[in-house]
C-alpha cells in the first residue's frame, strides 16, 4: 500500500508541494492541512476519542472527536466526510465550519480546519486507531486539562472551541 501523500501549504492554505505523511511528521517546518470535527450531542457534551496506544502522535490520550489529514488533491469537505466515516462510522452529518488555526509542536505543524457536527450516535469506531469514544461534559474536560489525559492538540482545540462558544452563543 502506498503511503499517504499530503500537501505542504503556506499559512493561507496554498499548496507548495506534496510529501509523504512520514516526511511531514517529525518536521515541524512542513505545514500540512488537517480537518477536525467536534461531535456534540443535544446537551452540548463533546465526543472524545481515546487514541490507540499504537498511534505515532499522542498514543493513549483523549483527543478531538474526528481528526485526519487532507490527502493530496482532496477538498476540505471531502476530507471531513471521509474522516467521519472512517473513524466513527458517521455518514451524512450536517457539518458547520467553526474556525481554522495553525497548531505547531516539536513534532509537526498543522493548518487545522475545525467543523462541528450534532450527532447522538451510535458510533462505529475504527478500533485500529481508537480505543474508546465517549461524551464528556465541558466541566469534565476543563478538569482534565494539563493532567496528561488529553492530547496537546485537543487542549489547544478545546480552548479555541470555548472562545468560539463565547463569541457565538447558540
Q: What is the 3D form?
A: globular
Series of H and E elements: EEHEEEEHEEEHH
- Our Rg estimate from Cα atoms comes to 15 Å
Query: What topology, given as strand order, has the largest sheet?
Result: 6-3-8-7
According to CATH, the homologous superfamily is: Nucleoside Triphosphate Pyrophosphohydrolase
What does this structure look like?
The model has no long low-confidence stretch (mean pLDDT 93). The chain has one domain (5-167): Alpha-Beta Complex (Nucleoside Triphosphate Pyrophosphohydrolase). The chain has 170 residues and is an alpha+beta fold. The chain is built from 4 helices and 9 strands. Helix content is 24%, strand content 35%. The strands form 3 sheets. Strands 6-3-8-7 form a 4-stranded mixed beta sheet, with helices on both faces. A 3-stranded antiparallel beta sheet has the order 5-4-9. Strand 7 (96-104) and strand 8 (109-118) form a beta hairpin.
Structure described in brief:
The protein has 170 residues and is an alpha+beta fold.
Could you name the key traits of this structure?
170 residues; Nucleoside Triphosphate Pyrophosphohydrolase; 4-stranded mixed sheet
Helix and strand arrangement:
Layout: E1 5-9, E2 15-20, H1 21-24, E3 31-40, E4 46-51, E5 62-63, E6 66-69, H2 76-88, E7 96-104, E8 109-118, E9 130-136, H3 138-144, H4 152-167
Parallel strand pairs: 3-8
Antiparallel strand pairs: 1-2, 3-6, 4-5, 4-9, 7-8
